[in-house]
Amino acid sequence: MNYRAIALPIGRLLILISVLMIVPGIADVFARNSDWQVFLVSALVLGTAGLLMTMAFQGERPPGQFREAILFVNAAWFAFSFAGAIPFYFSGLGISFTDAFFETASGLTTTGSTILTGLDTLPPGILLWRALLQWVGGIGVVAIGIWLLPGLRVGGSQLFALESSENTSKPYGHVGPFVYRLLALYAGLSLSCATLYLLCGMTFFDAVIHSMTTVSTGGFSTSDQSFGQFDGLAVYWVASVFMLASAVPFLYLIRSIERRHWVKDVQIMLLLAIVAAASISVFLFERFIAHDTPFQMLTFAVFNVVSVITTTGYAANDYLQFGPPVIAIFFVLTFFGGCSGSTSGGFKMFRIAILGSYIRGLFRRMIRPHRVVEPRYQGRTVSNPVLEGVLVFAVLYAGAFAAFSLVYMMLGLDLETALSASITALANVGPGVGETIGPSGTFQSLPDLAKWFLAVQMILGRLEILAGILLLTPDFWLD
User: Fold this and answer.
1) How far is Cα 205 from Cα 8, in angstroms, rounded to an integer?
2) What is the rounded CA–CA span in Å between residue 301 and residue 291?
3) What single-letter DSSP state applies at residue 319?
4) Which of 73, 109, 115, 251 is the most exposed place for a label (fewest CB within 10 A)?
5) What is the DSSP string of 60-115?
6) What are the pLDDT tens digits along the chain (479 aa)?
7) What is the number of H-type helices and E-type strands within the chain?
8) What is the rounded CA–CA span in Å between residue 106 and residue 12?
9) Distance CA 396, CA 401 (A)
10) Distance CA 31, CA 36 (A)
11) 243 within 8 A of 189, measured Cβ to Cβ
């Protein structure tokens, strides 16, 4: 394995991080907050380190082999998380490096879990840095989902490779032209979202911050109340639309826009069906407890459901106050996630669709043993390698959820908090259930060791588990 080929892009990544740090530094200069010095020094140190690495390994080919790509992606997530934690640690927040790393990993993986309180009074540089981490992390998630994971055959992700299409043709001969389309779509969604937020009454700063954390399905906000700080219902519907749009495969959006034709997609239809069913259910339970108008209750129900299922993590109110049935609904939604090739995390809708088709076929064969029933997706038969990948991923997903839950209970967390923390980190959702880490709580009170495990689990979830687990196998390191 050529480790020099991996070090070169890591150096370039450090340069990118240093450039990004200038933006919140400028914001603090205008706000006359002394943290601008922290961002400036951090940018200079990381930029210099990145430049030296780039010069030292200049001329090396980029990671091309499978193992090199896997190692690079893992190294990139951890390197960015450690580097991005530096401004948090040395800022006026006064937090430990454990908390700083947790906050950064949560931002980059677009999880949205936080250890910070008093967001309403934090300096603009810190708030902007949190949003930038999620915005950059969101586009990184899409790129990894399209470039790396299909090659891993992670639970059928090969169905959504860059080279595939409805007609198994190759719409883009090279990665470069697609990257421009992807960046244009991502920037366009962000700009459109920010514009509509402004029209709904947000300040310019809030609109910029929340557009970045909406499109990335990250969920970081500028207030401890999250979206509850905003008046008017229009802003909740705007957020719901853009969260859903960002949970749709970006390849699907690009092709649909270019062809000016929207085709039916199984996983999108399944996502919308689950959102509709869950929203109506929450609304009906909410009517027995809340005293708002029916339209307001429906708005909050839809917003909260979309926020959780797309793994964004915003909150309009503390929906856990509406009783055990509502808590159960949101806990189950935490497992689902959005669509493949989007900024959303979770189990992914296409896997649910394939598993559902396989289970239906299994039941039919049990009733009529001689009947041949093959699982299908999007009107086509699911091949054995794809089905095998889905089943393996399901086992790994359940195993990782259970194993980390056990670790958190061993570290002193109660059963509800341990289970919720495990799935919210693995699915990159953000808030969990319960008083400690629910929509109105934070992860601050958790033990430091639990925060490190949670940060690793967030990154593992973003790498679709297998890309991280491979590093632990002896065969991976043998030439």
Assistant:
1) 35
2) 14
3) G
4) 115
5) PPPP-SHHHHHHHHHHHHHHHHHHHHHHHHHSTT---HHHHHHHHHHHHTT-----
6) 777 878 888 998 999 999 999 999 999 999 999 999 999 999 999 999 999 999 988 876 666 677 887 888 889 899 999 999 999 999 999 999 999 999 999 999 999 999 999 999 999 999 999 999 999 999 887 776 666 555 555 555 555 554 433 333 333 344 566 778 888 999 999 999 999 999 999 999 999 999 999 999 999 999 999 999 998 899 999 999 999 999 998 888 988 888 887 878 899 999 999 999 999 999 999 888 877 889 999 999 999 999 999 999 998 888 778 888 999 999 999 999 999 888 998 999 999 999 999 999 989 888 888 887 888 888 888 888 888 888 989 999 999 999 999 999 999 999 999 999 999 999 999 888 878 898 888 999 999 999 999 999 999 998 888 888 888 888 888 86
7) 19, 2
8) 22
9) 8
10) 9
11) no
3 state DSSP class of 368: coil
**pTM assigned to the model:** 0.91
Determine the Cα–Cα distance for residues 200 and 329; give it in Å rounded to an integer: 30
Q: What are phi and psi of 381, to 5 degrees?
A: -70, 135
- Spell out the residues 6+ positions from residue 290 whose beta carbon is closer than 8 angstroms to its own: 297, 322
CA–CA gap between residue 374 and residue 380 (Å, rounded):
10
Structure tokens at 87: 């401004």
